[in-house]
Structure formats: structure tokens, C-alpha cells
Fold this protein.
Amino acid sequence: MEDLRDQFNQLGMRFTAQRRMIYELFESSPRGLTVPEAAAALKDRNVGEVTIYRTIRALQDIGRLQWVHDGNGEHRFVACSSAHSHPVACRRCGRVVQFRTCEMSILEKLLSLETGFAIEGHHLEFYGICPACRADNDKKDQ
């Protein structure tokens, strides 16, 4: 958590007990959480929705929280390591796994040439069916 504290300090923000609770909540949820789910989970711990929104924004800014679309198209937020990574989300159970392989330089150059944009970054998300759900589905088919 010390590196997280340093990253908040670099943003000019204190890493308060409430912000720590918010990060730990997201970190403990392999499916991620929506803002209302996070607010409900932290309601009894005196963490307000405004604090949750601000902390989510800060965690996104420092690369420690990403959003994914769930099966209903809602944004769920998932914790990720400080390294650049992307999510793979299961459409059945909602489990999210991070992957670090990301060689986008060729595509970014092509997009820049085709559109004239100076590409500054990207958000890449994959979805499918996780191994546990696939195995469960195979059992049902037998």
C-alpha cells in the first residue's frame, strides 16, 4: 500500500483510511463493482458516494482501477496492478482477469496515418467465457 500512498501524494491527494477502504474493496472483488455496489458495501463505514467517485477517478488516473462492461453493459470497476494491463471479462460469471501483453504500436501508427490523430493511449477490453464457466457448461452438455 506504500506505493499507492506515494501515487496519491503525487496527485496532491492524501491516502486516507476511506480511500484505502475503497481500494481494498475493489481489490477484493474479482468481478469488480459498480459505484452503487461500492456505495452499498461501504455505507456502514461512513464512506460517502462523493468520496467513492473521487477515489475511483484518482485510482483510474494512477492506473490502479479500470472499468469493464458487464453482461448488461454497465461499467464495473476492477483493481489492477500498477503496470499497464487490460481486462478479460467473463460474460457469464463476471470474473475479470488482467493481462499485460499489449503490443499496439503498429495499430496505433496505422490509426494515426489513416485518421491524422496523434494517438495518446488506448483502452482495450476483451470478453468471453472463463475456463470455470466453460467447464460448467461442458458438464451440463453431458
Q: What stands out?
A: The chain has six helices and five strands.
